[in-house]
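Section 4.2 – Deliverable D4.2 (structural model, holo form)

The reporting period included a commitment to supply a predicted holo structure for the target in complex with UD2. Inputs used:
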Amino acid sequence: MARYLVTGGCGFIGGHLTHALVRAGHRVIAFDDLSSGREDNLPPEADLERGCVTDGTHLASLAGQCNGIVHLAAIASVEAAAANPRRAEAVNLGGARNAVAAAEAEKIPLVYASSAAVYGDAGSRPIAETADCTPHSVYGQHKLKGESTVLTLGPRATIIRPFNVYGPRQHPNSPYSGVIARFISACLAGETITINGEGLQSRDFIYVSDIVRLFVAALSREPAAPFTMNGCTGQAISILSLARAVADTCGTGLDLRHGPARAADILHSCGDPQRAFDLLGFRAETRLGDGLAETVGWQRPVVQ
Ligand code: UD2
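Output (structure tokens):
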């Protein structure tokens, strides 16, 4: 049994990760300022510590009680980061620096949630970790700078670049919510789906329990070398096709309108999953149809 510090532990991914770690017999300190996370995302066995990752002293004092850190806390939206870049820099880049300092002081491993946004527009073919990174967004730029800092930890550093994560407990009610949560919410409420632009942009959607397995595997690995790996399925779907799939899963008709394209929106984003398989034996297992069914099942009572 180990004790882990999960920053952003009350968030969508952090909550699922904390549940998985507790189920595996570990103890978890969830460090969260509840700015977007929710206390009810945590299992009762976890310890909630309220605070922000911009407070390096607080973070370091918690790391001193732990065997490893998973750093998920962030303003985890491309649009939200663009709307408030100074705050995003303080939280996303400053928080990463504080997590690195804490891991360095305690000589413990750090798993850093970077983002596929570091690649910028990757083209329609699956992109490998060796590709050049030219992020379009402030969010991607901060995540990339965070990666450089994390790599200073050497073998104890693991960087995961999640693609588009979806699943139960991703709340739909913020304008910055993920597209799947928003589309499901609109369908269930009988509202019109808004597609930003033509809808030909595509994304690699990975189900939350799959990305959590990758984080758990990364946390348990032997620290032989620093790792950077995609968290993806290797398959992408256009946003227009996604809208149809969501409406089918909800059992509603498809009512959509096209709005303006989003500024700095990536056209295509699809990850190459080979390295995560080679290094950790990880493969995403949940098919999009199954993941959508689970997500709609969770969201139905929330929306109605
Ligand atoms: C996602 C993640 C981000 C980062 C990035 C990696 C979310 C909320 N954000 O950003 O944290 O990991 O992937 O590349 O998961 N769209 C519509 N209508 C809507 C909402 C969105 O058409 O109502 C489009 C949007 O313009 C974009 C796509 O759907 O083309 C996905 O948007 P998103 O906000 O879910 O995620 P993304 O890829 O910007």
